[in-house]
Amino acid sequence: MRYLPLLDDAQRRAFDHPPKWTAAQRKLYCSVPDWAAQVLGSLVTSHSRGGFVLQVSYFQATGRFFSTDRFRAADGAYVQQRYRLGAVEWARYDKATRFHHRQLILQQFGVAPFEQVEAAVRAQVTHFARQQMNPVAVFRSAVDTLRARRWEVPTYAALAGVVTEAFRTVEQQLTTQLAALLTPAVRQQLDTLFRVLLNN
After folding, report:
1. What CA–CA distances, in Å, run from 22 to 14, 19, 28, 30?
2. Would you say 88 and 53 are in contact if contact means Cβ atoms under 8 Å apart?
3. Do the beta carbons of residue 106 and residue 154 sit within 8 Å?
4. What is the model's pLDDT at position 167?
5. Three-point CA angle 45, 111, 92, nearest 5°
6. CA 21 to CA 102: how far, in whole Å?
7. How far is the C-alpha of 155 from the C-alpha of 130, rounded, in Å?
8. Among 101, 162, 164, 190, which has the minimal tally of Cβ within 10 Å of its Cβ?
9. Sign of the C-alpha dihedral computed for residues 49, 54, 55 and 61 taken in this order
10. How far apart are CA 163 and CA 15, in angstroms?
11. In sequence order, what are the residues at sequence separation of 6 or more whose Cβ sits closer than 8 angstroms to the Cβ of residue 69?
12. Rounded distance, CA 195 to CA 24, Å?
């Protein structure tokens, strides 16, 4: 799908990657809550433990989840040292484990997964599109709403797809309505008006 130009390349990359933390921020966000510390104690492998801590940390900061290839090296190194994980093969933190951790984290934080609220987000975005709001403003408003309502923030592609589809749907509806209003008699009147304007 070709998306509306909602964010530039740099903004898209920033949206789909974990935040860049200072040392103080990293220390703050990588301090996991008590329930997560208990889960951590039940995990066996270093990659599962490290991946879980980073997902909890990133989620606390952004309301989003990230694939292993987007983990920041400085964050991984900090987590390895702080939680005494030893050597970590991050590539072994696979999709199935990440999905399980995502479900657990969403449940514990009381956040609804995006797939459960997508219809509501789509309805809100479509409403804004009908109000002729700027698409970029609609995108940012959707992100704010997701965070405020304790709903998961998806990837840029997923949310941009919802916004783009909403605007295209509204545009199609307006085109259909306009076509229905433009009867042959109305078209003839408009043609006459345009000819008069062009001749003046």
Report:
1. 16, 10, 10, 12
2. no
3. no
4. 92
5. 20
6. 22
7. 24
8. 190
9. positive
10. 16
11. none
12. 70
Place of tokens 């998806």: 154
Tokens matching residue 189: 């009147």
Report pLDDT for 40. Answer: 95
Which residue's structure tokens are 């309502």? 149
Neighbour count for residue 171 (Cβ, 10 Å) = 11
Give the chain as a 3 state SS string.
CCCCCCCCHHHHHHHCCCCCCCHHHHHHHCCCCHHHHHHHHHCCCHHHHHHHHHHHHHHHHHCCCCCHHHCCHHHHHHHHHHCCCCCCCHHHCCHHHHHHHHHHHHHHHCCECHHHHHHHHHHHHHHHHHCCCCHHHHHHHHHHHHHHCCECCCCHHHHHHHHHHHHHHHHHHHHHHHHHHCCHHHHHHHHHHHHHHHHC
Q: What does the pLDDT read at residue 195? A: 75
- CA trace torsion 160, 2, 118, 177 (10° rounding): 110
pLDDT for 2 equals 80
Per run of 10 residues, the mean pLDDT along the chain (length 200 residues) is 87 95 96 96 96 98 96 97 95 96 98 97 94 92 96 96 92 71 68 70
Radius of gyration of the chain (CA): 24
